[in-house]
Structures are given as C-alpha cells and as structure tokens.
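I am writing to request your help with a piece of structural work I have in hand. The matter concerns a single protein, recorded as an amino acid sequence and a row of backbone structure tokens. Could you please explain, in whatever detail you think fit, how the structure tokens follow from the sequence? Thank you for your consideration; the sequence and its tokens are set out here:
>
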Amino acid sequence: MSANNRERQTPRIRDLVWYYLRLGTIGFGGPVALCAQMEKELVEERRWLSKEEMRDGIAVCQSLPGPLAIQVGIFISYLRGGFWGAWAGGWAFILPNFIIVTGLGALYVHFSGLPILTAIFYGVSPAVIALILHSCYRLAKLGMDDWLQWIIATICFAITVAAKAEVAPLFVGSGIIGIVHYGSMFRRRASSPTVVAALSASAGVSKVTGVPILGKLLVFFLKAGSLTFGSGLVIVPFLEKGLVQNTGWINEREFLVAVAIGMISPGPVVITATFVGYLVAGFWGAAISTIGIFLPSFLFVLIVAPILIRHRAQPDVQGFVKGAYAAAIGTILGAAVLLGKIAIGDWLTALIAATSLIVLFRWKVNNPMLVAATAIVGIVAFPILRPTWVFVK
C-alpha cells in the first residue's frame, strides 16, 4: 500500500472533469456498479487515490441522503481537486445524463400523441414495477439488519399504500426512532440533532404558493434531493405524491414514463427529476429541476461529510441512518404497489411483470435490455389486444 501511495498521481481539475464526463455518459448499472467502476479505474488503474480513501468515501456517502454514486464522485473530486474540483467533477458527472434525459423529454413531448408510444409504455410500465421491486430487494439485503428496521419498513409501507402519505415525515420519524433505539436517548450529541433538524426543516417545505412555476420546481426538488435515503428509488413515492396527487403537474402516464426514463438512462434514478421538469416547464424546467435534485448532494458532501468522517461511528448518527433506511424500503414497496395498480391491468401486463421479475432474479439482465424487450412486446401486443383499461389515451 505504501508503494501505491508513493506512486499516486495527482489529477488536475481538468482531468477530473474529463473522467466524470466519460463516466456520466457510459455509467449504466446503478450505484453499486458505478462505485465499483470508480474503484477499479481510480484506485487500481489511475492511482488517483488509495483504497482506504475510496472505502471511506463510500461509507460516508452511504450515510448521507442523495444518490450514492454522484456523491462518491463529488467526494473524490473534493479530495483531489478541493472545493472547486468538487463542483467541477460533480456537475461533469451529471451533465451527460442531463443532456440525454432532456433530449428524451423533448422527443416525448413532440411525439406523445403517436399511438406507438402508447404501445411501448403498455409493455414497459409493468417491467418498471418489476425493476423497482428487484432493486428494493437488493437494497433490503444490503441494509436491513434487524427486527426494528423491518417493523419500521412495514409501517411505512402500510401508510404509503393506505393513506398515500407524504414520505418526509415518515423519514424524520423513523430516523428519530432509530436514534432512540440504536443510539443514546439520554446523551444529546451535536451531530444527530443537526441531521434531524435539517431533514425536519426540509419536511416542512410543502406546497409553495404565489411563486412562479420554476421557483416551485426548484423548492420541490430541493426537498426531494434531501430525502433520497438508501436509494434514488426513494424519490418515486415522493414524486408520485407531490407531482401527481398534490400539484397535478403530471399525470400517472407521464409519471411512469419518467420513472422508466430514470431507470434506463445512465446515472442515478433521480435524473427522473430532469424529465419531469421538462414536461412541466420545458428546457428551463429541466435545468432548474436538475439543479434542485442534485444541489443538496453537493452541500451534504462539502459540509456534512467532513463532520461525518469524524462522527459517523457515533451511535445517534448510525441510528438515524438505520431508521431512515428502513423507511426508504417501506415507502419504495408502497410506491410499487400504487404504481402497479396503474401499470398492470390485464393478463399480459401481469405476465410481463412476473416474467421480468424472474429474469431479473435469475439472470443479470441490465435495465435498458429489459425495457427494450418489453417495449417490443408492447408494440406487437397492443394493436392486437386493444386494451381499454390502459392509463394512456
């Protein structure tokens, strides 16, 4: 290890930008795959940082709300490029996906009246439900450790399905339960109240009135970006509640399309925000929504991460994270049930969902391949079956 340290290369900010532009363009496979790719390329091949630094970065970023891979990229850029390197590397990571998803949004808006899109998403939507369920299973295996987490997850699942409740209070309440059980309810450390206060403040940001649509989008996605504990999929129930039920900015069809786009494009699932922003307010809506969803990640990494490096072993911090993680599992499952009622309405869509789950669990099929296959099924079957229940026009 000492030899590696002696040979370690010091990248310039320009090098960080080019690396993350490339990774943001080809980075399929989800956060775990992206982190593994960064470790292989930056630790073993380029020797920009040590294995210990990489592992510390992953561990710290797992304790923060926000998309894991993006935050690890920001963290690495901060270590090697300082404050400005973090901003440059992080936005370089995001930019390619922003361009791709904004382009898809423009195409969707332009061609949304074509019957072929109805057919495509007739086949794709049940596959999206399977993708959500499979991702939730993997997340549960990764971070659900004991009975209390499963109780929290079950309660959050039931509330999400029955009441279609706002997820922000569920996260804060679950985090507090985690502090009480796993931490020390009698010792009041500075770090845990800080975390709870920050998320409590974001939970209080609800419907914004008297503000132009771009301002409303910014506030909404700043809130969403502060609550993606455990996985970017946590944004699914949050968006479904806020965008479809509360504001009516998009309908169920557009929401499922947005989730599908987020899951098949490179980068994190939260890029769904870019697509939604374009549907609501065009290019500037996409830009503002992207800034809103990712800005909290930069602030968490640059401000909170240095504190967590010193205090992440503190029981109250770990307790809050464990409680919020359990809430994430429950709300994701609840959102999958709610979306499933929209996406699955006949024997073929049920078969697509079940077959997709089997394929995902038995073979390592990537998201774009699965979506492409089910899109073909939809194109072929929709004109034959002509289902009248479909949530699209």
